[in-house]
């Protein structure tokens, strides 16, 4: 009976520390900031307005319009299972492209606190120590 009580108390502590009804983590868990910059223009020239619409399974971050060389950012807490996913649509000049702007399995080790992306006509590039470019989905 005592071991059952210990198990119950341990489970309760884990739930209180790492779980909640809305899936948010406690305030001490690190925050990740994702920044996307419109790089659709040619060097020194203007380019098209970029419309960005990002979502996760739980959150719709709304529609944002970016001029060339302007950026949009949002922040969130990743989950402990590395399954955090934010996906975006990008629209310009009657084109619509899609990309997973933050995929926990792909990105958490490369940009755990800050993920900087450039959005180009042929895909998105993650900046940092290791620059990595990805094609549209």
TrEMBL record:
Signal peptide coordinates: 1-23
Location, primary (coarse class): secreted
Keywords of the record: Secreted, Self-incompatibility, Signal
GO cellular component, one term: extracellular region
Subcellular location: Secreted
Keyword Repeat included in the entry's annotation: no
InterPro entries: Self-incomp_S1
One Gene Ontology biological process: rejection of self pollen
Pfam short name (any one): Self-incomp_S1
PANTHER family for the chain: PTHR31232, S-PROTEIN HOMOLOG 29-RELATED
Family affiliation: Belongs to the plant self-incompatibility (S1) protein family.
Name of this protein: S-protein homolog
